[in-house]
Write a structure and sequence with these properties.
This protein is of the alpha/beta class. It has 14 helices and eight strands.
Length: about 375
């Protein structure tokens, strides 16, 4: 199915509950005020007879409504909060800085408010995000052949032990566990939704996860077991292809990926992952629909577990799985990313719709 909205009653209930699972996927237009809002808008709720719901900002504007000045529906949800915008800009400008709560307070921001805002939108605090950025500097130093002490200093850690502990918490193993001559290597891939960590050999991609995913260290430890500890840090050929195809995907040019994938899971789990790959960009499926597709209609919970165990984000598009009622379900990379990916892929759904009449006409002509 495409990103069809649920019925009006369901959407109105979501509006009353300020349900964040519809943020970026549904908007309410209020005829009594002439404005449109996010369903999470803090404004007083309108009567149901004054509400109409649309899937995109463009549809709201075409219907003659203007954007609400309280919830800023035309801006990304996170950037609508001034504190987040200010701190993300500061994080980009002050690379390697060891951020603390006093730093935040000196910028005129309340640390507790900032902590709640970042947790709400990103599933982590600003200080945790800043720590990940510093660790990335250490990763880059190691990938370039630097020693652990050089990586520690580049990451801004004064203590070798603290650096090793933080690195192991992110990468699943201490830095000296990664081998310089390994056939399988790990490296960062930048995307508009944050840095990702890829694991590849010379021919196949084995893992792709957002660097801040809570399950990433456990996934990397499992990869260390699979490859008997022979994993290094650096680039492999599939990563360059992956980087270019991700750039095209986020730019709206092409949603197809040709990077060869290596799946590590049971036969059932791999079957589910292949079913996920078959979901076109711009469409979604429910767990029950996937269970029926693979011929196991009663295995809905097993499908959900396999979906959650996916270790190749975006290319195996588990973000295209939503609830049977049209609501968003959990996503290991963060619900805010799932919302954004669904928004990005709407353009691919629209392009597919535009192509269908031409294809139909060609078929008739043939």
């Amino acid at each position: 199915m495409l990103f069809d909205l649920p019925d009006t009653a369901t959407l109105y209930d979501a509006l009353l509950a300020r349900d964040p699972s519809y943020d970026g996927r549904a908007y309410v237009c209020v005829s009594s005020t002439g404005i449109f809002c996010r369903l999470t808008c803090p404004a007083r709720k309108p009567k149901p007879e004054n509400c109409s719901f649309y899937a995109t900002v463009g549809e709201c504007i075409q219907a003659g409504y203007r954007a609400c000045k309280r919830c800023h529906p035309m801006a990304p949800a996170a950037e609508a909060e001034p504190a987040i915008k200010v701190l993300l800009a500061a994080l980009s400008e002050r690379k390697g800085h060891r951020w603390s709560e006093p730093d935040i307070a000196r910028m005129g921001l309340d640390p507790s408010t900032v902590r709640r805002a970042f947790n709400r939108h990103f599933g982590m605090t600003f200080l945790e995000m800043a720590r990940l950025e510093r660790l990335r500097n250490g990763h880059v130093a190691l990938a370039g052949g630097g020693k652990v002490i050089e990586a520690q200093l580049d990451a801004g850690f004064s203590s070798p032990g603290a650096f090793r502990t933080a690195f192991a918490r992110l990468m699943g193993q201490a830095p000296n566990s990664f081998l310089a001559d390994a056939a399988v290597k790990a490296d960062y891939i930048d995307t508009p939704l944050g840095a990702m960590i890829a694991l590849a050999d010379r021919t196949h991609l084995h893992l792709l996860e957002f660097a801040d995913r809570k399950a990433l260290p456990a996934e990397l430890r499992r990869m260390h077991q699979i490859f008997k500890g022979r994993i290094g840090i650096g680039r492999q050929p599939p990563m360059d292809l992956l980087e270019s195809e991700l750039e095209a995907y986020f730019a709206g040019r092409d949603a197809r990926f040709s990077v060869p994938l290596a799946f590590h899971g049971s036969d059932f789990t791999r079957t589910v992952w292949h079913a996920l790959v078959d979901i076109p960009a711009g469409e979604t499926r429910s767990y029950s629909a996937i269970a029926r597709q693979i011929g196991r209609p009663s295995a809905i919970r097993a499908v959900a577990r396999a979906n959650g165990a996916n270790q190749i984000a975006l290319l195996v598009p588990c973000h295209r799985v939503i609830g049977a009622d049209g609501s968003l379900t959990g996503y290991g990379g963060g619900l805010w990313r799932k919302q954004k990916l669904i928004e990005i892929e709407r353009q691919y759904a629209s392009a597919a719709k535009l192509q269908r009449p031409d294809q139909h006409a060609s078929a008739e002509a043939g």
